[in-house]
Design goal:
InterPro entries: Homing_endonucl. With about 200 residues, this protein is of the alpha+beta class. The chain folds into three domains: about 35 residues, no CATH class; about 55 residues, no CATH class; about 60 residues, no CATH class. Strands 1-2-4-3 form a four-stranded antiparallel sheet. Helix 8 packs antiparallel against helix 9 and helix 9 packs across helix 10. The longest helix has 21 residues.
């Protein structure tokens, strides 16, 4: 078991029979002692590599960082150090959580290239075989496409309204795709575009 992950989450990895034994406190004293020793002596630092971080990002990651229990504060500081101290650590004592957050520029220039082992974030889009977080990989690639389109949008002269609106529509379609990944879609793509275009006066 991993001391940095809630036991309630880890217990789901056991068979139903094992879960019942754990919940009913029916494990032998020897097994409990071994388990306790493992948890007390576990040192994540020896496992702190890209694969470890990708797994953590898949389980606790948000769009701009990692949100975890206060117990993992030291771990997040070590991850920040791993990424050359890019980003900030924010503590929410009211929610008993701690976050490692990175601004868009740091995410694009430092974090994502290192996570995917590429020299530039654009290589992530060009090289589909580059490996990052398994579960959140598709979402990351969609977000990078949105970032790229937004940079293109900013370069277009404000009087070229049709060109700007065309890029905004592409961004909206990609944002709808992210909503699908997050299982938050309760409306069709067409309805979503109509609603968002009204908001953006397109």
């Amino acid at each position: 078991m991993n001391s940095n992950v809630k036991p309630s989450i880890q217990v789901k990895q056991f068979t139903l029979k094992d879960q019942e034994r754990i919940l009913n406190n029916e494990l032998s004293s020897k097994i409990l002692e071994e388990l306790n020793n493992y948890i007390l002596n576990y040192n994540y630092k020896k496992d702190l590599n890209i694969d470890f971080i990708n797994g953590l990002f898949d389980s606790d990651g948000c769009d701009y960082g990692i949100v975890s229990d206060l117990l993992n504060k030291e771990l997040l500081f070590d991850i920040k150090s791993f990424f050359n101290n890019v980003g900030v650590i924010k503590e929410r004592t009211d929610e008993k959580s701690v976050s490692y957050l990175v601004a868009k520029t740091g995410l694009m220039s430092n974090i994502l290239p290192k996570i995917y082992n590429v020299s530039n974030y654009l290589d992530i889009l060009e090289n589909k075989s580059s490996k990052g977080p398994i579960i959140k990989d598709n979402k990351i690639r969609v977000i990078l496409k949105i970032f790229g389109l937004y940079e293109e949008y900013k370069k277009i002269n404000i009087i070229e309204k049709d060109k700007r609106n065309l890029i905004l529509e592409k961004i909206l379609i990609l944002s709808y795709e992210i909503r699908e990944i997050n299982l938050k879609n309760k409306e069709s793509l067409n309805d979503y575009l109509i609603r968002m275009k009204k908001k953006l006066y397109i």
